[in-house]
Records
---
Amino acid sequence: MKRALSSCVAEGAEGLRRIFDQVKNQSRCVYGYGLSHPAANALELCELFGFEDLPRGVVSNYAPGHASLEKEREDQTCSSFFRHTPGATSPKSIQLPPRRVIWKANRTKEDHQKFQIALASAEQQKSNTLQPNPEILPVAFFGIRSCDLRAMHTLQNVFDVQGQGVPKSAAEMPLLITASCVEPGHNCFCTSFGYGPECQDSDLNITECFVEEEVQHNKGSESALEKTKCEQGKTARKQIFVVDAHTTRGRPIVEALSKDQHLRHASQHETALLTATLKRSQQRLKEFIAARVPNEENRSKVWAGADIAKQLRDQARSKNWETIAESCLSCGNCTMVCPTCFCTTVEDSIDLEAQRSERTQVWDSCFTAGHSYVHGGTVHKSTPSRYRQWMMHKLSSWHDQFGESGCVGCGRCTTWCPVGIDFLASAYQMTKGVE
Amino acid sequence: MIELGRSAAWLPEVCVVTDVCRENKSTVTLELENSSSEPHSQPLAGQFHMLYAFGVGEIPVSFSRIESDKVAHTVREVGAVSKAIAALKPGASLGVRGPFGNSWSVSAKEHKHIVLIAGGLGLAPLRPLIERLWQESRKYEQILLLIGSRDPQSMLFTDDVTRWRTRIEVRRSVDSCQFRNRGDDWNESVGFVHTLLDRESELSKDTAAFICGPEIMMRHCAERLVELGVNSRQISLSLERNMKCGIGLCGHCQFGPDFLCKQGPIGNYHNLRPRLRIREF
């Protein structure tokens, strides 16, 4: 694994706070995973107003059809920040809001048969959060994962390929601060697409590591180092954040923090710890994938490749779709949580006097009967045909349309499937082409 | 990287309906001023507009006439939007986006024999092509137009058909004709439109075929044409799927790898055939 030589280290929660504040200071708003309210038992991609909004001590427990959060043991004062995996919502909800007014139409007072149409205001279009004014600071994402970043590129590529992307200057691009997945989820399979669990193409990547150290009572207990230690019998757990800057936007952050002594160069021991942490994560991902793709040969192939596109295309008429979609409720959850699903529909509303109307763009799902409706009926009538549309679009036709995979391996569709259909296992079952 | 897509592409232009003509009980043709002054944005035969009825919604409708100063759309009243559009009177506003999609492509250099097959409202998207071929009929050895309809009452563009017959061979058929035995004036064929091909024993290799109608009808016609010796790459079909945006972003019109609003609605049978054989695809 290629690694920047200049890994830096921030110590403890206080160290992470400095990084967060530095990012917050140079951006308009910060988005990241947090609890929508204190009692919430789900992680969401939301605006983080301060460091306290980071989901500290929250560990996610995901399985097919199951998502819950657990609190780390209370006695651990250095609770983790990034041991959870991504929440149900993704940066898609910022890139393509679930609901936005596009334009408004008004009937002409003089002639009732006539009307005018005008674009809705930037605020109603929710583009104020998205299309930054070059005069003001960019938005930042903090603590998102490599799959999120991959998904953001994939979604942006859709707009670009369809000729609807607006070119942006580098300064307008969001600041991307990612975190390595040190504790991958059971449904994750990013590594089968050839990337993860750390992120190497963000502006700055943070890897949370824990060091077990013997407690040394005779040393000055007031030191900053001591504060971050938490006692566990005779050993203490020390929390460090290894920071890697990848871009010209990430490096100044590291430089500014280093200047103020909040970051220092990683020691040899810490670099080894980082490697071990990521290796352990990779190993776990490997095990999770092996549980679903039992065949070693299939497991090692890169799922982002075009060969799976062809294999699925050849299976379009297969009876196996019925087997796979047998328990599918056609609820559309998978498409809602998918960070790259971009289908939208429009709703036209009108006031009671029939004078004003507005058009709203809302997320849509290929699992609804309305999605493929043409006069006279729905094309995708049966649930297996809808499941086929969804999986073939993600893993097959996306290659034809946009030159890459539509799936990033985040596993959300599996986690939030109410009946726990495992996307990876199903894809494997389809491509091997037997019952 | 953060992007919603250009909103302007979603914004209809408000046009004025200049004329309305009722074709039959449920079908209406609306005439609009051709607002595209630029030659490159002139609509082409086979393309479509997204038409917006105030407060009701938007539907894709192909051009049934394209002239330098005006265009026409033929709409059948089947849903809320098409009913609202069909109810418009001359002078009313209509939201218009487009033109979108690809077009019928024919060249007298490559093709000497032309077969056009229309089923029901499928005659409307073919009409601009038929008009062009009618004008240029001398360049072709044979032009054959087959029109199928549910019953004699729903036959479209009957005046045009009379005119077309002066230069083009037109055969018409209806699925059923209740009044046949009661002296109704329907004296043409009865039966599905592809049966009109039964009179042919073989078609020339340089035949180009253009088919528009219900999917099942197009499939049968295309198969029959292949049997008669037409190259499946020279058979064009116009497909229909749900469409919300026309710019390849709403995802509804996907037909396998194609977004029918951009790569379609017209495709050649050679490419479409494997997908047309898949149920509910």
---
Amino acid sequence: MNKIFLIISREYLTRIRKKSFIVMSILGPLLFAAMFVIPIWMTTRESDEVKKIAVIDSTMEFINQLESEHQKNLIFVYQPHFTLDQYKKYMKNNKEYDAVLYIPRILPYSPNSAQLVSHGQINFSITSYITSKLETLLTEKKMRALGIDNFEKIMESAKTKISLQTITVSARGEKKSNVEVNMILGYLLGLLIYMFIFMFGAQVMRGVIEEKTNRIVEVIISSVKPFQLMMGKVIGIALVVLTQISFWIIMTSTLVIIAKAVLLPDVDMTQLQSAAPQSIMSSSGSMSGMQSAAPAMNMSEAQKAFAKFDTIPFVKIIGWFIFFFIGGYLLYGSFFAAIGSVVDSETDTQQFMLPITIPLIMGLFIMFYTLNNHDSSIAYWFSIFPLTSPIVMMARIPFDAPNSEIILSAVILILTFIGAIWMAGKIYRTGILIYGKKVGYKEIFKWLKYKH
Amino acid sequence: MNIFEARNIVKAYGDFTALDNVTVSIPENSIYGLLGPNGAGKTTLIRIMNQILMPDQGQLFFQNRPLKPNDVFAMGYLPEERGLYKKMKVGEQALYLARLKGMSKNDALKKLKYWFEKFEIQSWWDKKVEELSKGMAQKLQFIVTILHEPKFLIFDEPFSGFDPINATLMRDEMLNLKAQGATIILSTHNMNSVEELCDNITLINKAQAVLEGEVIEIQNRYKPDIFEISYKGDPQIFQRSLNSKFELLEQTGRKEIYSAKVKNIHASGDNELLNLILPHVHVTSFTEILPSMNDIFIKAVESSNKN
């Protein structure tokens, strides 16, 4: 037993000392945190930046009308006496204005004739604001011409905004659910398991090939059992992954907490629960906030986005994530180790990779399907089938898959990886001692029958 | 006393029989040569001794009791296909391999220090293995093999890849180890080193042991009964002095110094030949030609292939 610890610690230490591990450990959480924080940050940042826009209003109808209290970062300077050409010339050498809005006399009759001239690419939120503002003003004007006064007030009272709350009912009672957040979470978790199995399974394979091509394997198995060497490698790499994941979890949550504190000071998160069912995507751009220009909003989109995460059962999800990762990794990792043992170099692995790649990729696609149909029978069966269950089940767990199904899937996965390890061990111990010979499936099946 | 015995070992890989009822007995404190053409089954036998492979049939004994899994710690093995982790540092790697053989960290460090000083390679400790030359790596492998002071050592083609200086160093160390009481199995194609080092051999051909015994005894068994005689005198008289029991194979030389090869046809005494020629020529040297292990190897393999 002592020996396997030596092997595990060698596999572990040589990998966590690598530069790539350190880089990934730091970049990973930054990427994750960025995924959550940047959209939120963007919304807050845009409102700070002030843009100055010159308005050449030939109709003279919109002067001092474009401003709104929700859009304080746009300053409109009305210059009705200049022509557009004069301004274009002026702007070539002058950056006083970020853009020039040209409203021709014919605008009420020709809606496509307004122009926005700028130095660089202009922000989408600005164009959409100007468009909607002009639309509102023109509509109002036309309405007034038809004899309807107080248009704005009428519209205000008539306008209705729906925010759909989703609630799941189960034996344990009812519970608010976040369909969108669950989808994103399920997607991320399934994808992460897929990526980890592939990345680190391939690392196991490369490690085995390295030992074989270095010709150190026979030296080692004269001191330890081949099975110990194989499992030492598989477990050592698993620990590397777990180290990396826990590092990521700690770093990401720290970064998110810091971001929360910096971006949203003085917010009591418990008050935000009711905001949760809204789409997380609405916070990724400021445009929806602008288009609706909803004055009824009590809190910013950013606050809502954070509030959504507080309704997720993180402990349960992380726990199962680690379980399904380990299970899937042990299952596929032992296959990868067996492949590594039968080839002489990485280029020879192609023919054996297919039976591993197919169920993995199938799992990924069924995972995508599961996100929209998490209670379908396809989702059910593939979350039980051990070769796809780590990926597919992870997409179901955020949707509150029944515990009995999760446990059934877990037990089948455990039994399968025990069988897989046993089989891989048999292939491995014969394979590592065979050099310079192309081995086919037929031969490998023969090895399974060998006595050792 | 035999330190290791393998009795009636049979090992097959599917339809291919690698070892067919092979028995070897290795006397304690000897150097035992394991010879045979490529693919004869030597490496399989070695791997069975190391418990890397299990025999299909047969028994294994170590120090007169059945072989146990823990006996690998009393063995050192330098395989033919040998290497090191390229990216690992020399010292770290040596320590790792030593600890896999059951040594404590402190003990391993102490002994590594001794050997690194002896081979004058202390400066390599923090180098990566990929920076070492092939010969340097072989030295390191040798140290790692013997570091835990095993009683029983197996060297599979130990001299391949060595320059003559390092090969001599290895050879001397092997003799040292034997002097300190170790038993060594030497599997090699280098017949000179067999003659030089081995006390006993087994020759394996096509999965079977076809020749075994002490090197001197085997050489005697295979000797062609040819004597090489250098003498001063007349070659004609020399030739005439031989009787029908002896056949002159060749004579070379000039100006009264000649060298002759004479075959003893009926294997009668060496002295009789001397008695025949001494009255006629002045003998300066008289030696029996012993067969080289190389010749014995070829002869034994050929005759076993015919059967």
---
Amino acid sequence: MIQQVKGTLSQVWPKFHRHRHNAHLHPFHTFNDYWRLWTISICILVGTALIPLFIVTLIHYQLIQKSVDNELELRAERLTATTKSAVSFFMQERLDALMFTVREAGYRRLSSHRQLNEILMNMKLGFGGLLDLSVIDADGDQIAYAGPYNLEGKNYANQPWFSESLKKRYFVSEVFTGYREVPHIIIAVSSKKEDGTGFILRATLDTERLIQKLASYKTGGHADIFLVNREGVLQTPSVRFGPIFSKTGLDVASVDQHVIVEFNATPDGRADILFGRTAISTNLTDTPFVLVVQKEKQRMMHIWLKLRRSINWTVGVCVFLIVVVVTMASTLMANKLYELDNAKAATMLQMEQSQQLASIGQLAAGVAHEINNPLAVISETAGYIKDLFEYTDGPADRDEVVDNIDEILAAVSRCGTITKQLLGFVRRFDIRIRKIYLEKMVDDVLSFHKKEAEYKRIAVTVSMPDDLPPMETDSGKLQQVLVNLINNAFQAVDEDGCLTIRASMPEKEQVEVVIEDTGCGIPEENLERIQEPFFSTKQEKSGTGLGLSITYSLVKKLGGKIFVQSTEGVGTSFTIRLPMKLNQRGAA
Amino acid sequence: MKHIDVLIIDDEEKFAAMLSKRIMLRGFSSDICHDGGQALEWVADPDNRATLILLDLQLPDMYGTNVLTEIKKIDPAVPVIILTGHGTEKDREECSRLGAYRFVHKPIQIDDIVAVLGEIGEAKSQ
């Protein structure tokens, strides 16, 4: 079980965190920074997965918010309308009752104190909501009064409501304290006596009952329902603005009978108060009241808030899962890449080594030929001297024997020169930075092709500036590059062809070597592929397809650049540009 | 009419001279050519006949296999031993296809050549 978990974890754990730089393998790696690769992969995948998720969530949020707002607006509108009709009806009912009483009873009966009391009693029994009744004549004198306050004999000529009531037939006042010094509303109906002078039947509305009626519409305690006058002064208590007669600062001067609902900003700037307004009026007359309904949005939003919380949780869990899965997938991918890249680099390194061996082998064949010829001379000359003893009576001519022995010695020294040359050549294949004379190295490489050049009558031209300073570079790698390119040139050139090797110093501290042949050339479609490993056009199996690929990587290791130009049937020229001094770090 | 036993075709003058002398010490006749052109001229001459030809692959003017092809055109019956410093496997196959008698790497044993001459003599007498 623990083993299984460990195995799974190792798959999704970045393996490259223990990656050590290896100077031999490094040039063959396709990727250098696996951490960066890993991070970029995670970022791209997480971004691709999360951005649409966030966009959809945001759209969802806005849609829900909008529909919740609409719903809230609708509810506030309904509440305002319902409350308005209830308050209007309350006023209307009482105005109707007063009008009925005036018409039915007439001034004579109303001016009788006893009868007025009787009417008030009946009204209270019938529908209530009235505190007192009084009859006032055209001069403002109170003629009769029925009710709890002793206000008989008062004159109302100076009261603003009095003149207003006389002008209009029906009148509803604002809340005011008046003589009794408690807030009240009066409603009044004016009529004519038999002698043609006017009088007023006035009633005091039970404001408590009005307040209770308003309060009965406050559902769930979120709403603040109150009446204000046109100046915005409270006519009933408000949760938000305080007791009666407080100033609200609301601008309601232009409010008409239509119900208007809108979002308003709270003093702290948040648009989360629903504000419904409408003017209260009856069939008979307008009233000075404006009904205001205020709902705090936040308090009505708990369903939406709950929904939002669950959306947030779901999105959060999704984000977490996506990040985990993406991280695991990216790690898996980066691990695989890392492993493959490592394996590739190791293979390439091995290939480079075997290619090096192969090119040494190729040289060895040339060397064998060079050595076998003098060996054959030695063998035949020595055999001849022996023959002189076996087939004749011994050498007749002493000088002939000495001459033949000299021939043997000359052939032996020829062999010695060649083996020395080969040894020196092979020794240079080890990886060390040393002083190199480019011309000498080119000559050495060419010397192994001397016979081939002779047989195929290839004109080999080497031109180097006389003042070319020695290079300080990795001799093995440079030699391998030259061997590969010169071998290729020899293979490409037919009889009577030309091979030109030129060196120059286009810049200080830089040498340019051009190896040009008049061989078969490389078709254009292959030109871009020649540096690919295992790309070969050699029909017979002599080519591994690694020569040029390794040459390219070697030049890179030497801190240089390689270019190729080729025309099919005309020839190929390889140009390598190398620094005169190899920076050790650059070589790594 | 010049009838010799061994024709040596090799550009290595010293080697050819020594080999020729040793063959003659053993009682056979021999002649030397130093390049392909010369050799083909020798073979094409109706007065000349060789029992055995020793042919080097690397000649200054032409490649040994081409010389072999030409010799076989003129005289298909003559046995040709290929003598080479470093002939490849490919060369060996090519020469065998072209009808070479043997393919031998330098240096060679003179006794082998004598033995071959004996074989050829026996084959003719049978």
